């Protein structure tokens, strides 16, 4: 944007007047928008309060005046003064209170009458507040649409309590007044879903071929899931919209939705699939990485490319050199050398106290968790040639130890139990050897 354009917008203050019945949440909306916090319990508004602020969703920020008019001002002669020079008039109703919506007809007619002689008409919009009480909805969606189309009003629904849609609605209205486009970061699907889907339905091809895919992420889906009718919504638009839900945990999607979907599971990536991409990124980003660093990333990722890149990034930021040591140190995972020395002590150290002190000191020095040590030892132990019954009892004891750790048992006690388990295993091996000889 040029400097001249910049200046032009710097000097334009947008005035938004907020009207509606008492208790619909007008003051809460202003508070939510200007300070992104819920309103502390406070009394009703008297007359009108003008609040100054800025719309930070647009660049450069737009100066604002929010005129929060008391719900009982409809019949007072002051309404004309409050509305003076308004660029936007936002009519707020409580979607759990039908009367607050019905009364809007009177409010709108009154505003139209006031602006009848004015050359400049404000942009008018509806805001259905308290969407967090959607389950107590008393105002039918079709009635809202009817009112919006009757008076050509913009239509929003949200909640001053949760902040849903508040920022978007204000930014959108201000952008319209100034003839700007809303930044894409402010465009969220859920609230406009109905409208968007209807548009796509209109645009459906005559042969019924689906025209529009709708890919939802976790956040969008969560919002839809809150609505009791989410599965009905999918069924309703299935003719012309293909819904694609992407998630990590299937269990987090309600059964009603799951039963309407075909499930595709993607296996973890093979090392051969990860390495070329990783090398490409490393080369383009000029990251210094060693071969054992790559191996360490692969080991820790468990086939998850996102984990590979996150670990790569944090290691690079903390050490500026990606090697096996820096990777393991960065994520707080035990080094291979540490595990080897721990295992050597467990297998050979006869003095219980010395062995305990060695592992405990190493844990403190390197900040290792016993759970991680157990996991690593568990993989290594299976490669040691123990007699089968010794190995079985050792594995069972290690599994018990891990379960106790997960349920919050003391690490010191569990470390002692681990050393004891190895002592017993070694005694069993000695007894077996004597018996065989
Ligand atoms: N559940 C819920 N309650 C809300 C929401 N917004 C406001 N409220 C509550 O509604 C009540 C009225 O809020 P106000 O912001 O004072 O309402 P108002 O429209 O300014 O009322 P007047 O100033 O009397 O015209 C308060 O108890 C708020 O906590 C919302 O989004 N959800
Ligand atoms: Mg108020």
Automatic annotation (TrEMBL):
Q: Which UniProt keywords apply?
A: ATP-binding, DNA replication, Nucleotide-binding, Nucleus
Matches recorded under PROSITE patterns: RAB (PS51419)
Task: State the compartments where it is located.
Answer: Nucleus
Report the residue ranges that make up the Replication factor C C-terminal domain in this protein: 334-421
- What InterPro entries would the database entry show? DNA_pol3_clamp-load_cplx_C, DNA_Rep/Repair_Clamp_Loader, P-loop_NTPase, Rep_factorC_C, RFC_lid, Small_GTPase
> What are the recorded Gene Ontology BP terms?
DNA repair; DNA-templated DNA replication
Q: Name one GO molecular function term.
A: GTP binding
Family matches, as Pfam families: Ras, RCF1-5-like_lid, Rep_fac_C
The record's GO CC annotations read: DNA replication factor C complex; nucleus
CDD domains the UniProt entry points to: HLD_clamp_RFC
- Origin, by domain of life? Eukaryota
Q: Which family does it belong to?
A: Belongs to the activator 1 small subunits family.
Q: What is this protein called?
A: Activator 1 subunit 5
Q: Which organism is it from?
A: Papilio xuthus
């Amino acid at each position: 944007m040029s400097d001249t354009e910049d200046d032009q917008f710097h000097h334009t203050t947008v005035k938004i007047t907020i009207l509606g019945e008492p208790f619909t949440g007008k003051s809460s909306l202003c508070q939510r928008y200007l300070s992104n916090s819920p309103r502390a319990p406070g009394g009703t508004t008297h007359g009108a309060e003008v609040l100054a602020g800025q719309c930070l969703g647009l660049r450069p920020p737009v100066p604002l005046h929010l005129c929060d008019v008391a719900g009982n001002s409809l019949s007072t002669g002051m309404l004309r003064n409050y509305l003076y020079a308004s660029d936007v008039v936002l009519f707020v109703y409580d979607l759990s209170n039908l009367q607050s919506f019905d009364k809007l007809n009177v409010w709108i007619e009154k505003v139209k009458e006031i602006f009848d002689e004015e050359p400049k008409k404000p942009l008018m919009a509806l805001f259905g507040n308290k969407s967090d009480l959607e389950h107590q909805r008393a105002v039918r969606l079709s009635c809202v649409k009817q009112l919006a189309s009757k008076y050509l009003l913009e239509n929003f629904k949200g909640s001053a309590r949760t902040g849903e849609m508040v920022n978007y609605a204000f930014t959108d209205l201000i952008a319209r007044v100034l003839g700007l486009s809303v930044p894409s970061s402010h465009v969220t699907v859920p609230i406009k879903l109905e409208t968007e889907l209807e548009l796509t339905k209109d645009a459906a091809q005559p042969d019924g071929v689906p025209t529009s895919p709708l890919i939802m992420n976790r956040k969008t889906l969560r919002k839809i899931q809150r609505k009791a009718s989410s599965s009905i919504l999918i069924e309703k638009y299935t003719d012309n919209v293909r819904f694609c839900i992407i998630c990590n945990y299937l269990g987090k999607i309600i059964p009603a939705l799951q039963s309407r979907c075909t499930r595709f599971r993607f296996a973890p990536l093979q090392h051969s699939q990860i390495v070329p991409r990783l090398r490409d990124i490393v080369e383009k980003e000029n990251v210094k990485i060693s071969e054992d660093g790559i191996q360490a990333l692969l080991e820790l990722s468990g086939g998850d490319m996102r984990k590979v890149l996150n670990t790569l990034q944090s290691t690079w930021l903390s050490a500026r050199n990606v090697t096996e040591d820096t990777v393991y140190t960065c994520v707080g995972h035990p080094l291979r050398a540490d595990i080897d020395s721990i295992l050597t002590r467990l297998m050979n150290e006869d003095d219980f106290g010395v062995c305990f002190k060695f592992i405990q000191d190493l844990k403190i020095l390197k900040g290792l968790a016993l759970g991680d040590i157990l996991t690593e030892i568990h993989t290594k132990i299976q490669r040691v040639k123990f007699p089968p019954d010794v190995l079985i009892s050792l594995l069972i004891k290690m599994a018990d130890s891990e379960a106790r750790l997960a349920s919050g048992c003391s690490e010191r006690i569990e470390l002692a139990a681990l050393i004891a388990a190895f002592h017993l295993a070694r005694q069993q091996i000695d007894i077996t050897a004597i018996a065989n000889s």
